[in-house]
Amino acid sequence: MITLEPIARPGAPLARRNPVAKLAAAMLFALPLMTTLDPVTPAIAIAVELAVLPLFGVRLGLLARRAWPLLAAAGGILVTLVLFAADRSGRVLLDAGPIVVTSGVLATALGLVLRLFAVALPGVIVFATTDPTDLADALVQNAKAPARFAIGALAAFRLVPLLGQEWQMITMARRARGVEAGRSPVARLRLFVSTAFALLVGAIRRGTRLAVAMDARGFDSGVPRTFARRQRFVAADWLLVAGAAATGGAALAASVLLGTFRPLIG
Amino acid sequence: MGAGVWVRGFGWRHGGRRDWALRGVELRVERGEKVLLLGASGAGKSTLLAALAGLLPEDSGAQEGAIEIDGRPAGEARDGVGIVFQDPQSQLVMARSGDDVAFGLENRGVPTGQIWHRVDEALHRVGFPYHRDRPTAALSGGEQQRLALAGVLALRPGLLLLDEPTANLDPAGAALIRAALARAVDADTTLILVEHRVAEALPLVDRVVVLEPGGGVRADGPPEAVFAAHGDALAAEGVWVPGRTIPPRRAAGPAGEVLLTAERLGQPPRLSPTDLTVRAGEALAVLGRNGAGKSTLALLLGGLLRPGTGQLTASPELAGAHSRTAPHRWRAPALTRRIGSVFQNPEHQFVTGTVFDELALGPRRTGVPESTVHDRVAELLGRLRLDRLAAANPYTLSGGEARRLSVATALATAPRLLICDEPTFGQDRRTWRELVDLLADLRDAGHGLVTVTHDAEFVAALADRTLSLTPPDGDPESR
Asked: Distance between the two ends of chain B, CA-based, in angstroms?
């Protein structure tokens, strides 16, 4: 089930910030982390991210539930690298027949997993604390994004949860027709493709009807749009953006000073 | 301020089609008039509404004649026209109810300071019972449609167009919309309404216009005069003309052997434990409010859903060698030879690219020899008036045709038991009659029939026994 609702306490000081400011802060914070391969920079970044969590009004348990795909990806990376890494330098930690785990392998794997978390968590936090409607409003008002794009995407987004129910319905309707894949993987794949096609046809029809209904209510008709909810970008928002950029840079600087910095290029 | 409408020799042909959807329409509607627009399926009612709303882009088809609204071409007069469509789901744009009403006001450039005042006023006019922060996803179909109406009324249109606004709603939801319309549309606003169910629309209108399939206007005038002169022809074409009842078709004999037995069958939180038996030669109608779990029960009886509580047993008469296992465990081909299911949305069930293949699919899947398949498909095509459409793509059929096809596909494998979910939903009177006759014939031939429905007339015409479901306990917000 895809949930889009924010999970934060809405009153938390940083959750209340302008959605565009939060998005920019997340990007500026994550950017420096992508330039290095060492585990220290992302470790510092994760520490910072967890430290500011209460300011966003997000509890750790809720965040973990929202970020479970990340945990799964991390597990996958760990297993893959331990089994298949080419570089098997360093001390041998475990020697179980074909599987040889060395300190070098473990360091690389750990670095990758930490980077994954450090870069993805800010995004998870922003979307967990932001109402999609507010984000679309702020994108149009503060980031000057075209309303056609931002509001259109928002409307389309609202139809996404319906797709899950629709898939279930189509699958049951096909079983009633005598269409079922059974055990053959080829039949399964063909049924998957044809169910996806039926879902797509339905989604396009619904999308077209929605577009006509939006059109009828004057959407994108050339009249300058006004806003029911004013999104303000104030000094505190600038402060958040600047603070995030500075902290991200500081994590990188710390790694350079500690001598652990390993640039991505070179 | 109401708007005056002048349609002069208007015609429209959709891009890529040979036939005109609409042609030679002459119509004048004065300010504040309330018009019911009628015509057989395919007479071009919805196309005319779309044209009035300025929603037919020039490059999407060919136009004849002109439409003027208060002296301006329809394409330029869109700011004075509002339209409400059938499907509430695909009209709501925003996640919060109030934001959705505000959406149109923002588009029209209404100053921020006035928006919320006008939102609240529109919500009040349609009798919206919740705060404006109510999530649109938490509303019932009838409430969503009320909200869509509020979103249009907030723009204060001089011309309000309604394209079968209650067709997708259950009776309670439809009543909500009619009450909201009676309350919200003032004497000044011009109203043009398309609606099959005439009796329910009549209190809202003072004039009836009938479009002629193929072109022009057949009749125009006060409702009594139009129905006195054209009532029989309209009824034969599928319009629900008031005061014309359809004779019921009851079972000729007593019910036959038991086909299915449900004991405490349920699916929390959607369906409370339910006991029932389904018999051959009997039409059982399952009734109940939205949210009572009717569709869930249909899926359970159809062997499509694993029961959450209790059990479902198929008798040896129905199941043959499979009577030791529950229907939801049967392989799909075994299921479709024994129990047929007709879904509310016919398109969910279409799998192939032509009507012919669609009908042949079930027999082929269940190992019927190809020579027999041909005969069986030909027989069904004739019986359900689909012969001309054998090569058509199922997705291009009209609502009535798609419904007939979905019933025919279920019959193609000759199941002993047929389960239908709202088969008459949104159908015109002609298709409705055909469905009643077809299902009654099946029952009289010894098939079992379970129909989940809101349609009281359908129940009166066909059902031998009814079962009323109540919404599960602990569900304060049944929809």
From this structure: 37
Contact A173 B349 (CB under 8 A): yes
Instruction: State the pairing for strand pair B61-69/B34-38.
Output: unpaired
pLDDT for A150-200, tens place per residue?
999 998 888 888 888 899 999 999 999 998 887 888 888 988 998 998 899
Predicted confidence at residue B427, as pLDDT, reads 84
Neighbours of A189 (CB within 10 A): 11
| Alpha carbons B401 and B431: distance in angstroms, whole number | 8
Which H or E run includes B119? helix B112-125
Site of tokens 């198929």 = B314
Q: For residues A157 and A132, what is the distance between their CA atoms, to the nearest angstrom?
A: 9
The alpha carbon torsion through B245, B250, B252, B253 (nearest 10 deg) reads -170
Given a contact cutoff of 8 angstroms between Cβ atoms, the answer to whether A134 and A233 are in contact is: no
All residues of chain A having their beta carbon less than 8 Å from the beta carbon of residue B87 are: 209
| DSSP bridge pairs for B162 | B84, B193
CB contact under 8 A, B155 and A217: yes
Cβ pair B43, B211 in contact under 8 A: yes
What ipTM score was computed for the predicted complex, to two decimals? 0.85
Structure tokens at B443: 């029952």
Between CA B270 and CA B471 the distance in angstroms is 8
Give me the residues of chain B with pLDDT under 70, please: 1, 473-479
Give the CATH class of B258-468. alpha beta
Which of B85, B116, B155 is closest, CB to CB, to A213? Answer: B85
Judge whether B192 and B37 are in contact, CB under 8 Å. Answer: yes
**Phi, psi at residue B241, to the nearest 5°?**
-75, 135
Where in B320-359 does DSSP place strands (E)?
Answer: 339-342
Of the options 3.40.109.10, 1.20.120.450, 3.30.40.10, 3.40.50.300, the CATH number for the domain spanning B5-237: 3.40.50.300
In sequence order, the β-bridge partners of residue B314 are B260
Asked whether this chain's domains B5-237 and B258-468 adopt the same fold, the reply is yes
Nearest CA in chain A to B306: A172
